Structures are given as C-alpha cells and as structure tokens.
C-alpha cells in the first residue's frame, strides 16, 4: 500500500500542540521539520505532505489565539529546504490555482523537482477558504464552479509549460557554441478564458516529466477534475462503504475521461492513535479530546460546515436543513453524514471532527490499526493512506515504530525504496513530452 505522512508544524489535531510531548514551535524550526521528514524517510514512507491556506482562519482574535494554524511556513520554500535534508522520500506541496499564476507555479515546481532529483508532487487546490479572497484584492471568493473551471485551464497551461523542452534539448555543445538544440524548444502560446501565456518555461523539463499531480476535492467538480488529470487523490472518507462508493465513482469517471482506471492512487486521510494496548490507545485519544477547547472546536466545526453552530447548545443536534457551502463542499457532506448516522450532538460532534480535521480516526493496538488499514486496502476502497499524526513527533514515531513493522510482516508495505523518484515509489508512469496534447 501507499503511505504518505502529513507534516503539520503545529499538529494535525487542533489541540495536539497542547500535549506535553508536542513540538509546538515546529513551524518556526527547520531543524524540527527536517527531523520529521528524515524520520518518515527512515520508515520508507512514499512521501511527506505539506498542506496550506493563504490566510489566517476567519475568526475573532480571541478564538484565533487558541488555533495553532494561525501561522505556517510558505510550503514551497519549506519543501526546497526539506529536499536538501532528505534523499529518497517524495515531497508533495499544496499550491492553489485560484490565487496564483500558472507560470509561477510551473517554474517553482519544476525547479524543486529538478533540485530534488525527481521527488516533487503538486497538490492542486482551488482555495476552499473564502477568507483568502480578502488577501488578494478580490471583493468576493469565486464560486465552486468558476474556481474549478479556472483550475482546469491552470493545469493545462502548467502541463504545457513543463513540456517547453525536449528531455535532451540542452546539448551544451561547447565546441559548436550551442547551448540547446533549437528543435527541442516548444513555445506554448496559450490563449484561454482565464490565462494568456506564451512560454517557454525557463527551466529544464522536470526529472519526472512533470511533478506527480495530486488532487483532494471530492465534490462533483473535484471528482471531474481528478478524473481528467490527477495521479493521486486524497479523500476524507470515514466508512468503508463510502470509501468504496467514492473510489468506484472516481475510477468510472477516469475511464470516461479516456484514462485507465488504475492511473490514479486513492489515499484516505487517517489519524492513527496507537497504544501498546487498547486501554493505552484509548487513554491517548481521551487525553487529546479533553485538550480541545470548546470555543475553538465550535469555531472550526462552523468553518468546515459553512454554518455557524457556535451559539447552539452542546446537547442539541444539527438542524435538518443546512445551507450548501461554496467552500468545503465535500467535507460538509461527510460531517453531516457522520452526525446523522451516529446521532451525535454538537458537543459530541466537534471533538470527532476537528480533532482530525474531518478525517477518519483509528484508535487501537498496532495489530488492530493494521487490521483496519488492511481491510480497506484489500477491499479495493483505497490504494493506501495519508497518515495524519495527531501531533509531532510522537504520532509519527508511534506509527513508524509500531504499525509499519506489522504492515511489513503482512507483506503490505515495503522494506526498502526500489527507485529514486516519487513516480517510482507510487509506480506511476513517466509522461513523455507532449503526452495528452494534440500537436
């Protein structure tokens, strides 16, 4: 199975930074972040992942003062630094198509892929956080439909820029004084609805042909985009039934888009809380739950729902009708489904949701957690997991030390890397220049 690890500098669990063992200042410490990446590489994870948002949470200063995601490193800068501190592990970084330009993203990611010798991946997002608009001279956040239309053109331009050069274009012929073969240069000359980009990119073609393409949206528009372009898809499914339905639909849509169903690796976000015994694991989970301050828990739940629950009694339930959000569409649906399915009150719901940002939490011994991961994998619901430690370093250390050996014992995970690039790790094809284009 594929395994990636989230490197969240202030912990994935909203209260994880409060744990006595947490490295709570990791967001301002390259030494710590490099150590976490090296630990994941030592365990032979396929990749580490850096999430991103281009704003502080939209909340009052009082609530913000309790939320550790108020700060984070710019992820491309951090990824470049981590590339220098590691050798084999993949590096997947989030970049939005709503508040960026294709040339910038193409150039930066091509640079990182070349400097890391083929280990870069791009998590394409469309900025589901509406507050980002206020930081980019935009009066209103674009609709879900408009953001995804822009994202599709954005990716097409970026892919075209990565194909600016043949792989052997740079001949460096000192005797003849010719730096590159003119026949190996391809000018994009793109004119579209959102972008006008001439090219060429002034960076050599990426080692991987293009960085591995990752997508995380599970709304209808997100699935459509993933079916056309994605090679890895992150999803936040919390039940086997829903995970199977999601992956089945995605693979069907991928075939409809003219691609083989197996071209995409589907990874479910999972927060494992591991103990040597079940009692120890549950005690860890209870301790984390008790650290979530209700004020920030309700604010984060409101953000994910796109609906304010902060004034509702903790013993009340979600209303029967919740307005559809233009932000976290797929996450809203998953949370509402969880609340209805398990008949959870607001007070019971927010620790379940905000502790893992809506992802599935698995609590237990190494054997039990391996059982859970194996069941979804062997059922065909997922190709692997993106592991979100509750906090660092303990969450990553516990999984690497206790669960990965159990997965290896069952023949479900590698002992050593077999290749050097992220495409090698994920067993993804190397795209020839011009693949997918009509020239």
TrEMBL record:
Domain Luciferase-like: 18-381
Keywords for this protein: Flavoprotein, FMN, Monooxygenase, Oxidoreductase
Alphabetical list of SUPFAM superfamilies matching this protein: Bacterial luciferase-like
One Pfam entry name: Bac_luciferase
Keyword Flavoprotein: yes
InterPro entries documented for this protein: Diverse_substr_monoxygenases, Luciferase-like_dom, Luciferase-like_sf, NTA_MOA
Any coiled-coil regions, as ranges: none
The keyword Flavoprotein belongs to this UniProt entry's keyword annotation: yes
Alphabetized NCBIfam families for the sequence: FMN_nitrolo
Family the entry assigns: Belongs to the NtaA/SnaA/DszA monooxygenase family.
Name the UniProt record assigns to this protein: LLM class flavin-dependent oxidoreductase
Organism: Agromyces humatus
